Amino acid sequence: MPDVGKNDARQSIPAELNDASGKIIGAAIEVHRHLGPGLLESVYERAMIHELCLRGMTVQQQVPVSIAYKDLNIDGQRLDLLLTPERLQQGDQAIGRIGVANQPVEGLWDGYRVEYSLGPFSAFTGAVSRTVEYSVLTLKVIWRILTGQSSIHNLSGPFTIADAAGKTASYGLVYFLKFLAIVSISLGVLNLLPVPVLDGGHLLYFALEAVRGSPLPESWMIEGQKIGLLLLAGLMGLAFYVDIQRFFG
User: Fold this and answer.
1) Are 238 and 231 within 8 A, CB to CB?
2) For the whole model, what pTM was predicted?
3) Distance between CA 130 and CA 34 in Å, rounded?
4) 91-100 own/partner pairs: CB under 8 Å, 24+ apart
5) Residue 165 has what DSSP assignment?
6) How far apart are CA 130 and CA 214, in angstroms?
7) What pLDDT, in 10s, does the model give residues 125-159?
8) Which run of H or E residues covers position 234?
9) What's the pLDDT tens digit per position in 169-228?
10) Largest Cα–Cα distance of the chain, in whole Å?
């Protein structure tokens, strides 16, 4: 169907209608800029509420709600953030408006966009630092999944990786190369885990042989290979399951 009048409809939206959009997006960027990645969700939630209040918005946290589904009442649910709308009088009718429209605020990103270039040495040291940062972040995510602090839905299988690759490629070459670098770092960290079959498992064998002063019994290595294959098969199956649930569930 042709998009007749679509651009005109967008242009007719008043600029003040996007006031809350700008505040919310700006607050989210500000929180992420100061805290960075890797913290608990509750930390970002409290920081986000504080930032929104500083911007003059009325926000409530963890508001209890009751959800009715047919003849079933689902209690004990909570809203992370509840934004109180502004009272607006239109004739004899009072309506609530939070100031959000499906239209980007013009010039919103200009104040947050920074372009910079580095020399060869600075670029090398920066790349090493960023690689260490992403490696540590990957280990933290793995640990949180294993200890139940994070959901298994943080796993990404081939469908999610292919989808993300297509999206980043549409943004431009720089974003696509950055995505490939992050994937490569994550796979490298996984490959160095002390799991038989992986390179990290071989390093573990070498370390045990150095401690023992003699080669490991062949039966140990065979059993280790079986355990490693079982773990890898389970991880791959779980990643496929999460992907299928994400795209087709």
Assistant:
1) no
2) 0.53
3) 17
4) 97/17, 98/20, 99/16, 99/17, 99/18, 99/19, 99/20, 99/21, 100/17, 100/18, 100/20, 100/21, 100/24
5) H
6) 39
7) 988 999 999 999 889 888 888 888 878 887 888 88
8) helix 218-248
9) 988 898 899 999 999 999 999 999 888 888 888 898 888 888 888 888 888 888 888 998
10) 90
DSSP lists the bridge partners of residue 59 as: 83
Asked whether 68 and 79 are in contact (CB, 8 A), the reply is no
19 CB-near residues (< 8 Å, 6+ apart): 99
Return the higher-pLDDT residue of 215 and 63: 215
Domain boundaries, the chain: 6-111, 120-248
The length of the chain is: 249
208-212: Cβ within 8 A, 24+ apart = none
Q: Residue 155: left if φ>0, alpha if ψ -120 to 50, beta else—which one?
A: beta
